[in-house]
Hints:
Layout: E1 11-19, H1 22-35, H2 49-54, E2 57-65, E3 68-76, H3 84-92, E4 101-107, H4 110-113, H5 122-130, E5 137-142, H6 149-161, E6 166-169, H7 181-199, E7 204-206, H8 215-226, E8 231-233, H9 235-238, H10 240-248, E9 256-258, E10 273-274, H11 276-287, E11 291-292, H12 305-316, E12 328-333, H13 338-345, E13 350-353, H14 364-376
Parallel strand pairs: 4-10, 5-6, 5-13, 6-7, 8-9, 9-11, 12-13
Antiparallel strand pairs: 1-3, 1-4, 2-3
Helix pairs in contact: 6-7, 7-8, 10-11, 11-12
Amino acid sequence: MSHQFHFSGQRFSVEYHIYGSMNDARRRAALLCNDQTVEAADHVIPPGLIRDELLGRVLSVDQLRAGVCRAELTFPVELLDGTMSTLLHMSFGMAGLQSGVRLAGLALPDEVIARMAGPRFGPQGLRAIVEVSTRPLVCAVLKPLGLSPEALAELAYEFALGEVDLIKDDQSLGDHVFCRFEERVTRCAEAIAKASRQTGKRCLYAPHVSAPWPTLLERASLAQQAGAGALLLCPGLIGFDALSSLARLPFPSLPLIAHPDFQGSHFVNPTGGIAPALLFGLFPRLAGADVSIYPTFGLDYPITQEDCRAIAASCRSRLGSCPPMFPTAAGRMNASRIHEMIALYEMDVVFVLGSDLRQDPTRIRTACQEFIQLLGA
Length: 377
């Protein structure tokens, strides 16, 4: 490292929950200072700037409860470069290979946040597009995998006649030989536009876009040209930086919906991995998602009501210049859960409708309308 370089002195802090005794936690916290930065044996770390400035520092270690300690470490902001991959690496890259360590919190200076993509539209922008000022937004899902483009378009048409705000592909829909991406997106976008002309209600179609870059960019651009009003992306599959890149581009310029596919192993074990508030709140928000989908509490997923409350707070809390994003009530969502979801999330939430509303194929549009009426009430 050049002797002419000067560190700013600004640091970001990372909170880890370390499982074990206090002595173990202190020892492992000290090791994380090295592992999360230079990851080198002590004898090869030269004196000077690397040792004095670049290494992490233990700010505190205290006991949360029996067998669990909280360690707060700080790192210089010069370790971050405005990309999601570097942020993920510096906060949990090597720590994520260990057992008994959980990434629980991350506090970034405003100047670091300003370099991240952040949501392009956020709740305010999405509400303006669909012209819904107060009630929660409603999103229907095109599934199952195996339906033809024509069948999916017919389903999309019924949903749009039911006056939902968003219609997204299921995350399983890709570019299969029995349902090609371009034909599916074109047909569904046309069907939704037709229904919107009949109802006078704007409805956004979000096709699932998943492919290696630059095919991902080509498909996202094709989707907007075909009439899509948003995009569904799985950062666990394509990477948070791919999401971030789309959020920064002048075209395509659509609201982005992040789906949790392939991210479950990061949070299901409470003694390791990443806290849901970061995985489904802070990280997609910094990367540029306008809506974050994740499983809600009360189902077969190991996520609690308190987890969901923390995710919502991470979606909405002040974060420098970064706009907020929509949390979701997702996972077999039906009318019976409206009251408990509103009690938790209040009005700035997106309801992702479950398949129960399709039990009677002749009443799909009516079931959607009734759900929306219940929300309005």
